[in-house]
Specification:
There is one protein chain. The chain is of the alpha+beta class. It folds into 3 domains: 87 residues, no CATH class; 101 residues, no CATH class; 100 residues, Chitinase A, domain 3 (Roll). 54% of the residues lie in helices and 11% in strands. The protein contains 12 helices and 4 strands, in the order H-H-H-H-H-H-E-H-H-E-H-H-E-E-H-H. Strands 2-1-4-3 form a 4-stranded antiparallel sheet. A hairpin with a 4-residue loop joins strand 3 and strand 4. The longest helix has 29 residues.
Length: 293
């Protein structure tokens, strides 16, 4: 029994209970009906202590906890008086913050939803481009500089293409064509990355080339190229198992926005919106949820 009495945790709980009783009966000055009582619940005291402990990595001392509760009551008094004086009105920051807190209410509801595989699959099928796996290419290229070849560029490209095909698909690209600062060989490059390096037209033309032989010329932002695609992986929409996390994240976000809008539309039904100084149009009615007059 003595050991229990000496436990610091017991002292802390007793202090919390004492503060709860003391501040729970505090009366706020003023004659406004229904606004003179401030009750600091035990749960609020525990929350103040928990927040302090999370910040400072230790529980508050009795004096610190008393100070936390005093600050809470002070904040509550000023908050109520500010509301009573209408200081919250016509304040853009406060309006926006309160609006966000109302949105959080609907978002909390949406966050509790657990999608089934059927729902996630349906979402994936409705938004395939968001998860589509790009085509990838493994290829070699030989560069021809238009400035160097001038009006003979087409002729030189044809002659070099014939030479490369005689050498075969495994020909060493570095031994042909003009000097080139970038790589001659690219492995499993995505269409997007190829487009960034050579241009979108070059990447698009790779889709039309037959793998296993030298072809061209293919134009890029640098000039023209003779290209041999050795491997091409076609683009595809992956199954749910491969992109579950991304689909779940996007589904959650879409669900949150949907619930937020439904929550707003239900609240809007309580109001009649009048826009002064503007003629009512169908567009304005839509903006106000068909409640504008």
């Amino acid at each position: 029994m003595k050991r229990i009495i000496k436990e610091p945790l017991l002292h802390f709980l007793l202090l919390g209970a004492g503060l709860f009783i003391a501040f729970g009966v505090m009366q706020k000055p003023g004659n406004r009906e229904g606004s003179g009582s401030i009750v600091v619940t035990m749960g609020q005291v525990e929350n103040l202590a928990a927040t302090f402990a999370k910040t400072w990595q230790r529980p508050p001392t009795p004096q610190e906890l008393a100070g936390l509760v005093r600050n809470y009551v002070r904040e509550e008094v000023f908050y109520r008086e500010a509301i009573a004086l209408g200081l919250d009105k016509d304040d853009t920051v406060i309006r926006r913050r309160l609006s966000q807190k109302m949105e959080f209410v609907s978002e909390d509801i949406a966050a509790q939803a657990e999608p089934s595989d059927t729902e996630l699959t349906a979402y994936l099928e409705a938004h395939p481009d968001s998860y589509r796996v790009e085509p990838r290419f493994t290829f070699r290229q030989v560069y021809l500089n238009p400035a160097r070849h001038g009006e003979h560029l087409a002729r030189d490209a044809t002659q070099l293409l014939a030479q490369l095909n005689r050498a075969g698909a495994e020909a060493d690209a570095t031994q042909f064509g003009d000097p080139w600062l970038l790589e001659h060989q690219f492995a499993a490059e995505s269409a997007t990355d190829i487009g960034k390096q050579f241009g979108e037209q070059f990447a698009a033309e790779l889709l039309e080339l037959t793998p296993g032989q030298w072809q061209g010329p293919v134009e890029s932002g640098y000039g023209v190229h003779l290209v041999c695609v050795s491997e091409r992986t076609e683009g595809r929409v992956p199954p749910l198992a491969e992109v579950r996390d991304a689909v779940r994240r996007d589904w959650d976000n879409a669900r949150r926005l949907e619930m937020n809008d439904k929550f707003y539309q239900e609240l809007l039904k309580r109001y009649t919106v009048t826009i002064e100084g503007l003629e009512t149009t169908e567009q304005e009615k839509n903006l106000a949820g068909n409640r504008t007059k």
